[in-house]
Amino acid sequence: MLRSQISRRVFTLAASAAVLSLGLAAQASAAEITLKYAFFAPEGTFPGQQMLHWAEEMKKRTNGKVEVQTFPGGTLLGAREMWDGVTMGITDIGLSAPSYDPGRFPLSSGIALPLGFPDATTASRVLWEVTNEFEPKEFERFKVIAMFTSEPGYLMTREPVRSEADLKGMRVRATGSGVPVINALGGSAVGMAMPEVPQAVQTGVVQGVMTSREVLQDFRLAENLKYVTDYPMVVTTFAAVMDKNRYEKLPDDVKQVIEELGDEIHAWTGNYHDNKNVQGALEWSAKEHGLQVVELSGEEYGKWDKTLQPLVDQWIVEADKKGLLGDKYIARVVELRDQQ
Ligand code: DTR
What we know:
This protein is α/β, with parallel strands linked by helices and 340 residues long. It folds into two domains: 2-149 and 237-277, D-Maltodextrin-Binding Protein, domain 2, CATH 3.40.190.170; 154-234 and 283-310, Bacterial extracellular solute-binding protein, family 7 (D-Maltodextrin-Binding Protein, domain 2), CATH 3.40.190.170. The chain has twelve helices and eleven strands. It has a six-stranded mixed beta sheet with strand order 7-6-8-5-9-11, with helices on one face. Strands 2-1-3-10-4 form a five-stranded mixed beta sheet. β6 (171-173), α6 (178-184) and β7 (188-190) form a beta-alpha-beta unit. α4 (120-134) packs antiparallel against α10. It is globular, with a radius of gyration of 20 Å. Bound molecules: D-tryptophan. D-tryptophan (DTR) binds at residues 41, 45, 47, 150, 175, 194, 211-212, 236.
């Protein structure tokens, strides 16, 4: 099924669910608790789909006691306002990307280093487990209700990139921990928010993009970017949080459902993103725009690994200087990454 058909179907499903819930609300008593849930990007993106899934499950599993009102697309709060917006009570739940702001989330940003995660399902599981084990101080004001990651970013370019030499001086859009990755490999990283990217690609302001590959279809980048280099780089981390005091005031049965969903949602989202969202986009891009996958030679692959390893080593030194147990954190992340 094409992505546009999927989103239309999702929209229709959501619309009929809304009609149904209105109908039910008219018959039964209204929900006892309403939670506002804000996200900075559109509902059709994979974090947005995760939000809808969570909202539906919440309602179902509390037998309608909890109603979740969703605010996607930055209608309530943008990416960087999200954390303070939750603390200030503008929203009950806020979903944003901690790895956009490594200064604020110094320990969990370690997951967004070039660690060779194979997919979002693996990285999401590791993020959830390692956060529960280490309880990073950066989340101390929050109750983390869901965590997951994008798949690792890949280079998507106008001209094929088969080596560091091909990347030399190339302007590539990247964010967060992706910036030093592109620069270390000889490219020239350009930071910009995702909504600005299609125009920057069209006009040649950037000659490539490094992020998860569903954007080829979701932002129609495959019209100009015909090559994907098959080398997984860095993931983006996502967290949905509530203010801790607000969370503590919820009834125990509701808290229990929130806990239960937290343990499940990273796998649901990883599976959706890896197997439907990204796979669908790659198939669509190949069929509609002749997208080609560029394989690195074994030698070049090893060279890239070697070029990027110092970024991990430096991060550990910096984290340890801040008293953050960076070495233990990364060692555990790597151990969990390799467990199936
Ligand atoms: N924002 C990305 C990370 C990302 C990848 N897919 C989505 C979808 C919705 C929001 C964010 C993302 C980046 O800026 O590269």
